[in-house]
Amino acid sequence: xxxxxxxxxxxxxxxxxxxxxxxxxxxxxxxxxxxxxxxxxxxxxxxxxxxxxxxxxxxxxxxxxxxxxxxxxxxxxxxxxxxxxxxxxxxxxxxxxxxxxxxxxxxxxxxxxxxxxxxxxxxxxxxxxxxxxxxxxxxxxxxxxxxxxxxxxxxxxxxxxxxxxxxxxxxxxxxxxxxxxxxxxxxxxxxxxxxxxxxxxxxxxxxxxxxxxxxxxxxxxxxxxxxxxxxxxxxxxxxxxxxxxxxxxxxxxxxxxxxxxxxxxxxxxxxxxxxxxxxxxxxxxxxxxxxxxxxxxxxxxxxxxxxxxxxxxxxxxxxxxxxxxxxxxxxxxxxxxxxxxxxxxxxxxxxxxxxxxxxxxxxxxxxxxxxxxxxxxxxxxxxxxxxxxxxxxxxxxxxxxxxxxxxxxxxxxxxxxxxxxxxxxxxxxxxxxxxxxxxxxxxxxxxxxxxxxxxxxxxxxxxxxxxxx
Length: 469
Ligand code: SF4
Prior knowledge:
Elements: E1 7-12, H1 17-20, E2 28-32, E3 35-36, H2 40-47, E4 51-57, E5 63-69, E6 78-80, H3 118-124, H4 135-143, E7 149-152, H5 158-165, H6 173-182, E8 187-193, H7 200-211, E9 217-224, H8 242-263, E10 268-270, H9 272-278, H10 300-314, E11 325-332, H11 336-349, E12 353-360, H12 377-385, E13 393-397, H13 414-420, E14 425-429, H14 432-440, H15 460-465
Parallel strand pairs: 7-8, 8-9, 9-10, 11-12, 11-13, 13-14
Antiparallel strand pairs: 1-2, 1-6, 2-3, 2-4, 4-5
Helix pairs in contact: 8-9, 10-14
The structure holds iron/sulfur cluster (SF4).
Iron/sulfur cluster (SF4) binds at residues 91, 93-95, 98, 100, 114, 116, 129, 460.
């Protein structure tokens, strides 16, 4: 057994230092200047030097010491198979609301990774509970200035948190946040809100205590719990209905107004689903303070609409369609009204454009799951096959595809879907700008997916990032 944690190279960028050094995919970086490497954080710090001795193991098992000089801030120019060479740190919890436990059997194995790794939190914005962290971790956070992090708070009541996470150590949330602050780290926070559990007076307490931790606490996102039909956990969890969602919005609004008066920003944001459920419009752009938790799905709808508006303002002249163009727009049920409203604008501008919004019920996970990003190919194809009439094209939500790949959650490929609808062109849509371009200039619209940043591994938090659309 090697004593090293190898950093396995996945890709070498053209023209990079790594290419000059003749490193190739599959090579393993074992050591830099005599130091072993746990992750790309260690690697970055070890590489911040002008003289480097790099121990590399090639695919044939041969080890080679490569010595070279570089500018102190010159990057190596590679992607690794994983950012954490010593393995993803798993969570120590059994949360009542764990979405990983609610994934259907036979789904991609990568969807069932229960990561809770503060390094991925720093590097990629994954949320961590901190229940698996000890003094060495906080020392490292301090030493390497790993800030900001993203913390799943859920609630500040210690007993309730330990109960909800089914982890006695979870009770130490206040202490752990203190440790982060002592280490000089700031943090964004998140609450997964479960009706009748951590809402009401408990939410009030959580907000009060997190707000009191400003400026180290940078933001607080509150998202409603999602429950699929595959949940087998015996603890009874409840989702919000329209009335409950409206109550949460009203309660949180009091705090939002107070903080806006105090420091001119909102600080606390609700997931779009609360607004959809309550039948209220999503807040305006100014409300989101620059969208600090967009990767967590917070403000996605407003951002999507903004993107549409920006693209629409950039194109004053619109070439009209000479022939009728019939497009089907596949969407989760929650966001369908927003997609419809934007489509109406496009139809008003284009006499020959005919858009049909196709809200797809999520039969796979259960119909309470209403976001576009969790639609499976089977459900999409079944909904499309039920529809008659002309159809030049089909727009599908890009987040339903695995990041960087053309594969749906149920392992069906985009090309298989295309084969099933040979008469229509199928294109993914990610942003509001994509949606605008697809509707307004369908003949030339082709979403370029190649070259987009791919997640190198699928993590739970990375997964939840995509669930809103
Ligand atoms: S929700 Fe996250 S922290 Fe909780 S059990 Fe699931 S993976 Fe672990």
